[in-house]
Amino acid sequence: MTPSANHQPYDVIIVGSGAAGGQSAYTLCMEGAKVLMLEAGRDYVPEHETPMFQTPDQAPLRGVSTPEKDFGFYDSTIDGGWTVPGEPYVQSTADPHGRFAWWRARMLGGRTNHWGRISLRNGSYDFKPHRRDGLGFDWPISYEDVAPYYDKVERLIGVYGTSEGLENTPNSPEGCLLPPPAPLVSDYLVQQRAGRLGIPIVAGHRAVLTRQLDFKRSPALLHPGNLKAQKIIAEHMRQRAACFWATDCGRGCSIRANYQSTTVHLPPALATGNLNIVTNAMVSEVVLGRNGLAKGVKYIDKISGREHVAAARVVVLAASACETVRILLNSKSAQFPEGLANSSGKVGRYLMDTVGSSVSGQVPLLESLPPLNEDGASGHAFYAPWWLYQDQQKGKMDFARGYHIEFGGGRRMPNFGTLHGLESITQGSYGKKLKEDARRYYGSFVGFDGRGEMIPNENSYCEIDPVVKDRWGIPVLRFHWQWSDHETRQAAHMQKTFAGIIEAMGGKVSGAVKTDGAEAIAPGGFIIHEVGGARMGESRQTSVTNQWCQTWDVKNLFLNDGAVFVSNADKNPTLTIMALAWRASDHIAQLMRRKEL
Amino acid sequence: MTDRRTTIKWMLAAATSMPWLHHAAAEEVTASVPAPNGYGYDPNLTKLYRPGDVWPLTLSAAQRRTAGALCNVILPGDDRSPGAESVGVVDFIDEWVSAPYPRQLKDRPIVLEGLAWMDAEALLRFKKDFAELDDPRQHAICDDICYEPKAEVKFARAAKFFTRYRDLTVGGFYSTPSGHKDLGYIGNVPLARFDGPPMELLRKLGLGPQPS
């Protein structure tokens, strides 16, 4: 992992090592391509660095969030968060509703180390949303184009869940999904009471191994005819342990029981002998050759501060939607004065996040339960897929797109905040009474999070700030953000729905239900489902890439990450990012074999 | 671990109070500088930390004595678990009010002023420091400030302190192995299998897998 390794000839340079970079490297290396991966953060080894059984009292400040560890001390994100020292970004307005918060993780594996592991397939409606309701845009591909890659990704990374045959909530073929984990007491209660309100509660889908992967059958299905690839992935599937039902997935997993690029994609890719990873390599731009093709990339070695150029036949950007956009916009030339691959003017446009809103409540039925180990698979045994497609189709709703519900309760490891705010229930008890109250109320809280679709709009985008540069001298992004009524009304609907479920459970909502959607909705970027900014499409006039993530303007430049998303369904984007990256990488390998690249 | 919901709540609160760098009229730079004396953006996550390891503790011996007495009034020892002071909650509160981060810097004057008020009130009512009072006298003061909605106007500020201090004590105590044991938390151990709640408990609650 040294910059000097750059001198050998590479077939492909991949910028970024997260879900998209990891999947692209995995697929291309298995297909025999020589790959150089450039990661802006440091090397990261989950097997040694994950705080698996540490308790909050072993961390500074009982592990609470600080500006240096935004999701708490034990969250696996390092050198990242809402802010990165020396790497600012700019807001175009001081209005809190017009801001976009950008989560970055400068580390090998990027944000896959800490993510929620929720892995949902987009459905057939989700690829053709404009056709259904006239809003947003359609993808140039349909569910059927992506389905085989969803199958492959589920088999490779390991996703638990069930196939329920619900509307726009695709089934997985037999053998793709692992069995879901046992639900908790609170899960059963939500299922029963939300069920009475007509809200379907079914098994969640998460990238956690509830049992060992099928290393006998899956390798041949993943890599038909490729014996070397089959042998390597069989070995790595064997090495990954099944979940041992303890420790929070957000810390990462030293036994490789959940999906992180660093434990699932990169080790087999490295085992091919075809992958070279250079960390601390901050890519500033794609270098364009005189022939109009990408020659390689320019990057700064963060340790020495020196600039390097790496060359390859193909360049894949997988740096996260916004970082990929930033690299394109900073790659200016006579041919592309507005940024590389930006003849459409669409680079940076139609940035999306997910609509988020939360309500929690206290439920007397769950008080004073006997001691139970409810660590489970660290949450999300169940979820509720969107259930009102028909009402929307009939024009009965005041917003266009759906959301799913994530929820959690149970006797999870008590931390600093677990028993805060009890005084509204206990009338300010203290002393022996408070100890009794704590025993009574611990485990009786249930929280609900809505995750909904945002429709792309003209006012949510990013561009290069004309003034501010980061510590490496690279111009930074400036964000513009606006929710439409579809999103804010959806957030208000979430609030009412969650309050209704809590009441149906015999519980009481903590705090106030926010009926004003603009107040109920989490600010842009907060859900960390940043997608869009270089969408794929049918034509070079209205989109940045074709359906293969290949830029219209530069045929050996591919955008394999969330930047190409045309819409952002309520389904968390990571599984789709991986499926599209695999599909694009297959296409790259095919074009290289045909000498078309 | 702090979940996303908690973090978002905290971020929303912080967003209104954090100073932002301006470089042009309507534009804001979202930047960050590591806190002096903080643990930085890349701390060793597997190391075991004790209060005082990363930044120095700052409470005086007298402040710690009052802090300990109040911790034990809020969470005294009983047959299930020891009092809060004996499991290191004063060290934790000292670490908290000495920390270089915005949320803790905001709590520091509330806690310091509150501890001073406890002693001043004890002296006024009973001519002794708070830590030297017997249980009934300590309770006489705490009863007046333990619930903000019912506190008299003259105790409003002290009641606000008490609410915050109770959360610090509760958070400090129940996040320790002693607190975990007291609550009946029996997780954080590797299991060969996870079967979920026992059937008889589900039946008692009228719950269970839906008949298929």
Strand line-up of the largest beta sheet of chain B: 1-2
What is the H level of CATH, i.e. the homologous superfamily of the domain at 1-48 and 73-87 and 98-159 and 213-353 and 530-597 in chain A?
FAD/NAD(P)-binding domain
**What is the overall pLDDT average of chain A?**
97
Class by helix and strand content of chain A? alpha/beta
Spatial gap, N to C terminus of chain A: 27 Å
- So, CATH architecture of the domain at 1-48 and 73-87 and 98-159 and 213-353 and 530-597 in chain A? 3-Layer(bba) Sandwich
Number of strands of chain B: 2
Q: Helix and strand succession of chain B?
A: HEEHHHHHHH
CATH topology of the domain at 1-48 and 73-87 and 98-159 and 213-353 and 530-597 in chain A: FAD/NAD(P)-binding domain
Structural class of chain B: mainly alpha
The helix fraction of chain B, in percent, is 40-55%
Name the poorly predicted regions of chain A.
Answer: 1-5
> Quick one: biggest sheet of chain B?
2 strands, antiparallel
**Main β-sheet description of chain A:** 7 strands, mixed
Summarize the structure in words.
The complex is a heterodimer of chains A (597) and B (212). Chain A has helices at 19-30, 46-49, 124-127, 129-133, 143-158, 185-196, 218-222, 227-239, 261-271, 321-330, 389-393, 423-426, 432-441, 485-504, 517-520, 574-593, and strands at residues 10-15, 35-38, 80-81, 89-91, 104-105, 202-203, 275-278, 281-288, 294-301, 307-317, 355-362, 382-383, 403-408, 445-452, 461-469, 475-480, 508-509, 557-559. With 597 residues, chain A is an alpha/beta fold. In chain A, the strands form 5 sheets. In chain A, strands 1, 2, 7, 8, 9, 10 and 18 form a 7-stranded mixed β-sheet that branches. A 4-stranded antiparallel β-sheet of chain A has the order 13-14-11-17, covered by helices on one side. A 3-stranded mixed β-sheet of chain A has the order 4-16-15, covered by helices on one side. Chain A is globular. Chain B has 212 residues and is mainly alpha-helical. Chain B has 8 helices and 2 strands; from the N terminus they run αββααααααα. In chain B, helix 3 packs across helix 6 (156-174) and helix 4 (102-126) crosses helix 6. The longest helix of chain B is centred in the middle third of the chain and has 25 residues, at 102-126. Chain B is globular. Residues 10-26 of chain B have low confidence and may be disordered. At the A-B interface, strand 3, strand 4, helix 6, strand 11 and helix 13 of A face helix 1, strand 1, strand 2, helix 3 and helix 4 of B. Strand 4 (89-91) of chain A pairs antiparallel with strand 2 (27-30) of chain B, so a sheet runs across the interface.
